[in-house]
Specification:
Elements: H1 2-23, E1 27-33, E2 38-44, E3 51-53, E4 59-60, E5 65-70, E6 76-81, E7 88-94, E8 100-108, E9 113-118, E10 124-129, E11 134-140, E12 147-149, E13 155-156, E14 163-166, E15 172-177, E16 184-191, E17 194-195, E18 201-204, E19 212-215, E20 221-226, E21 233-239, E22 251-253, E23 259-260, E24 266-271, E25 277-282, E26 287-293, E27 300-302, E28 308-309, E29 314-319, E30 325-330, E31 336-343, E32 346-354, E33 361-364
Antiparallel strand pairs: 1-2, 1-33, 2-3, 2-4, 5-6, 6-7, 7-8, 9-10, 10-11, 11-12, 11-13, 14-15, 15-16, 16-17, 16-18, 19-20, 20-21, 21-22, 21-23, 24-25, 25-26, 26-27, 26-28, 29-30, 30-31, 31-32
Amino acid sequence: MLQKAWVVVFVLAVVASFVSCGHNASHYVYATVPAASQLAVFREDPYSGVLTQLDTSPYSVGNGPQSAVVHPSGKYLYVANAGQGENDVSLFDINGDGTVSEVTPRTPVGTLPFLLAMDPAGNYLYVANALSNNISVFAIASSTGSLSAVTGSPFQINISPKSMALSPSGNFLYVSAPSSPSGIIAVFSVTAGVLSSTPIGITSTADNNPSSIAITPNGSYLYAANSTVTANSISIYCIAPCLNATIPGTLQGVSGSPLADPFQNPAALIVDPTGNYLYVANQGSSNIATYSITASTGFPVEVTDSPFGAEAHPSFLAIDPNGKYLFVGNQTGSAGIQAFGVSAGSLNSIATYSVGNTATSIAIQQ
């Protein structure tokens, strides 16, 4: 009997150790630095959020890298290179120690590729090309990470994309764009990576140049940052079917939207992996505001101790897969990446890490 009890205890200990290791495994953080045409790579300590730059970092990449995304498998990294005469996407193999190796040749795309998005299954890569007003879409080979254009790519959208987000289901692509007198968010249906020929819905925003959009993990709500001085607000939309919107994927403003931002120039926003909190980088106020998301309405309510001081001019946000750490890219002379610990929406500054020049995006290995 004692021997059986010992076996049970041993098995439970092994299971607990396995779960703990999976939850606390190291993640690697990849930051694009366009001015230097480099990729900075850090190891994230799972217990403290402290970043340590790898000895092999930074890596030389294509000219003017603007955006990066990691495949859900953690095996591949993609970088959009928007520099003059470049206009392509780099594929990197990610090694077990976080180091990367580029797989050539690079894949040509449209003009000024500056945004990347990937469906949760890792089947398709979407590239927003700002100057050619189109979206390039590629099927991803699961065994190699290589890219092949889907039928009809690139898809002409006839607007200049400013930000882009894919629904968690992968069935809808949302693209914000400047317009006058108000900006727009165009919704495209997606089937096996192929975009609908025209938007299934176009929604006006409270700003003529909406700077960022984000979607809750359950696909119920979309948020848009309205950053101009006259706007300074956050628009909140429910994603149909909801309220009076019946066409799946289309948007409807919720009651009370837009929410006035008491700070200046909300430049970027992100929803945490639980869908409970919305983080907003206010570039003009050099802070991060945190909002609790009301589950029944999607409406954000600022948490008690918000906002949290950031380095000057925060411009983009990234959050680790466990929702424990938030990373903020800023546009100060020191050009740093600031790390925060997260607890129930409250932020605690950990450290700021220099990357030499202004970073434009962060991708985190899942």
